[in-house]
Amino acid sequence: MKQDNRVIGALKEGRVAYGFNLIFPSAHVVEILGMLDFDFVWLDGEHGPFTLENIEDICRTADAAGMTTIARVPDVNASTILRFLDRGVQGIYGPHIATKEDAQKLVDACYFGPQGQRSFGANRGTGYWHDIPDLKAYYQNCNDNMLVGALLEDQGSIDNIDEILEVDGIDYFGIGPNDFSQGIGYPGEPGHPEVERATRELTERIRGAGRRMVADVLESEWITTILIDGGRKVLDRRKG
């Protein structure tokens, strides 16, 4: 069986999970920060230059450090998501969820049956099919440790939010401010009053339906910020 998903464990404990966001591949960074007690590492698989080999190396390193790997994927096609899951990723963040069909497609790709339609292959993400005496129980264990997030970035996310919320299996929702502002007609203006109003109203509708936002689940910092803050400390010594 794969190790338990620490983010799901944090939810059960009633706390937010803590981690860091990688926008470039570096198992070394994961190994170093893994010396601390982070719950997860988050990969930007949509915009970052990650290969499948990079993702697998990072998952292997994160597992050794006791961290869960989450990834934002380029799209919610089953073939795309499966490649991340087969590497060992235990959390998927699907972009541009604008319809109920998008949400269902995301869920179906992430879970084995009966919750979804994930395909099984003898890869790292399924322990190379080694020592699995009860495949049905294994499927359930994988489903129990799968974290699914939906990223809302389009006008359709607003128009169809009630139908999107009907889909089971999504643990949290997020709003991508830059793409969201562009998607509702204010490109390059994430701070526009109309964008802020739409974000606030969408958030209220989601929480009002008893569902979680990303801030209710994850707290993290970008690796670039961590590096730049560290560099500034060195430069501050020079100034002193």
Quick overview:
With 240 residues, the protein is of the alpha/beta class. The chain contains eleven helices and seven strands.
Report on the structure:
- By secondary structure, the chain is of the alpha/beta class.
- The protein has a single domain (6-239), classed as TIM Barrel (Alpha-Beta Barrel), CATH 3.20.20.60.
- It is built from 11 helices and 7 strands.
- It has helices spanning 6-13, 27-33, 52-65, 78-85, 100-110, 135-144, 155-159, 161-164, 177-183, 193-208, 223-239, and strands at 17-22, 40-44, 68-72, 91-94, 147-152, 172-175, 218-222.
- It has a 7-stranded parallel sheet with strand order 6-5-4-3-2-1-7.
- Helix 2 runs parallel beside helix 3 (52-65) and helix 4 (78-85) runs parallel beside helix 5 (100-110).
- It starts with 5 loop residues before the first helix and ends with a helix.
- The model has no long low-confidence stretch (mean pLDDT 97).
